[in-house]
Amino acid sequence: MRFLLAFFLLAANSVQAQVDSAFYRKVFNEALGNGQAYARLGELCKTVGSRLSGSPQAEKAVVWGKQMLSSYGFDSVYLQAVMVPRWERSKTESLTFSSAVFNVAIKGEKLQDYNCEAFEELPLKPAKKHKIPAVALGGSIGTNGKLTAGLVSVHSDAQLDSMGRASALKGKIVLLNRPFPESYLNTFKAYGACVVQRVNGASKAAAYGAVGVLVRSMSNRCDLHAHTGVMIYDEKQQKIPAMAVATAVANLLDKLSHQDPNLSVSMELGCQTLPDAPSANVVAETRGSKYPGSIIAFGGHFDSWDQGEGAHDDGAGCMHAFEALRLLKAIGYQPRHTLRCVWWMNEENGLRGANEYASIAAKSNEKHIAALESDRGGFTPRGFGVDSVFLPKVMKYKSLLDAYGIGEIEKGGGGADIGPIRKSNPNAVLVGFIPDSQRYFDVHHSETDVFESVNKRELHLGAAAVAVMIVILDQELD
Ligand SMILES: [Zn+2]
Fold it and tell me: N or C: which end of the chain has fewer CB within 10 A?
């Protein structure tokens, strides 16, 4: 009898006891020994490639994603239809400059990292028009032929305003050249300090009569790869075309513009905005055993920019979520709440997928107790940003998390795709996955964000980290 009682007590405690060091070991063993995320990310990157919202590749990705997730036998896999904006780049896309004072050429495709001197001076004659690495920013209008104008370089909002007020930007193409503050430890903070010039810079310059903008790429790295990203027009201002230029190009143009007051650049862009197109969020679920109507959603965005393969941004986040769901199923974890992996469509230039997801959840009275987002790349996991109300609960697991190098717990857990869930679930706990940030902006939104830039072990460690955080949420919330 005493033996039986002890047995029942043990059984009753087993759910709590699951989240111990042996449980963590199981999750990480499965991820490192039998991880699937890397192979599936490779398929996505190499058979589909980039996935700009509304593009044929994005639709191909949705079909691939549903099939792939279905092959793992989760309780349910389904699509949520959503209309998305459709902006399309054109093959007509070039930036050239000409100068009576300088004649320079790009040294070669491969830039030496250590000096950032991508260009060499050539004899002045014959002078050439030089094509330089640049790409349209997402959302930009086209140029309708060539747009040629003098170039003015500015380094700050204050300088933009003072030159604008002095009418120095009228009729000019403006280089918005504020670099990442390199002293910031977290590169996302550096991005946050500069990205406004990419998103809103064109309209700010247009207000002072500029006819086009070139935006310094949002990157710590000095190289010849241009990084695109969304730009948004202020409807009150004249719409002017906008391109991103590689950081090394921004340095060069800045230098030349100061030495040659007659430096001119020509932009030619055929990009355009087409009517909205049908697309979908992709969802996979494991039903909860105790509270099937309460949902823990976790995922990343399935769309990407059209440069590279969207490997880190955000193929990695989508694979983290899929793999976390798979890991927990593989080790036989019975979730109390419904675990829902979501690949949101259109984070990059519209957030339609996330908004539609939240509105469907609101209409069907779905209760979300928590949501986690991974949109910082597939690098070595460090920890999580967590809503302050939930911080004390997570801190109970601090030593377990520290043992796997994922114990950096910060206050604040929002994310673009999970934010809208709060509208109908104000108490949902939001968590952001935080990997190492040092290399993310080397590849972000550029042609270098390809599968080869993702490390298998780093990706699988990230998925395991997401899985253990989901279990903490599942255990600690009711
Ligand atoms: Zn992203």
Answer: N
CA–centroid distance, residue 454 to ligand 1 (Å) = 15
Ranges in the chain, pLDDT < 50: 1-17, 113
CA of 379 to the centre of ligand 1 (A): 13
131 close to 94: Cβ distance less than 8 angstroms: yes
DSSP 8-state assignment for residue 423? G
- Closest C-alpha to 414, from 431, 397, 398: 431
pLDDT of residue 414: 84
Ligand 1: centre distance to CA 43 (Å): 19
Per-residue pLDDT reduced to its tens digit, 263-313: 899 999 999 999 999 999 999 999 999 999 999 999 999 999 999 999 999
Q: Is 477 left (phi over 0), alpha (psi -120 to 50) or beta?
A: beta
Within 13 Å, how many C-alpha atoms sit on residue 80's CB side? 22
Residue 314 CA to ligand 1 centre (angstroms): 5
**Termini Cα distance of the chain:** 33
Instruction: Tell me how far the alpha carbon of residue 375 lies from the centroid of ligand 1, in angstroms.
Output: 5
| Cα-only R_g, the chain | 25
Give the distance (Å) from ligand 1 centre to CA of residue 354: 13
Ligand 1: distance of its center to the CA of 317 in Å?
Answer: 8
Residues 283, 77 contacting (CB under 8 angstroms) = yes
Distance 108 CA to ligand 1 centre (A): 30
Residue-wise pLDDT tens digits, 454-472: 999 999 999 999 999 999 9
HEC assignment per residue over 281-332: EEEEEECCCCEEEEEEEEEEECCCCCCCCCHHHHHHHHHHHHHHHHHHHHCC
DSSP string, 77-115: EEEEEEEEEEEE--S-EEEEEE-SS--EEE--SSPPTTT
CATH code, residues 16-86+275-476: 3.40.630.10
Is residue 95 a contact partner of residue 214, using CB atoms and an 8 Å limit?
yes
CATH of domain 93-270: 3.50.30.30
Are the beta carbons of 84 and 304 closer than 8 angstroms?
A: no
Domain boundaries of the chain, sorted by first residue: 16-86+275-476, 93-270
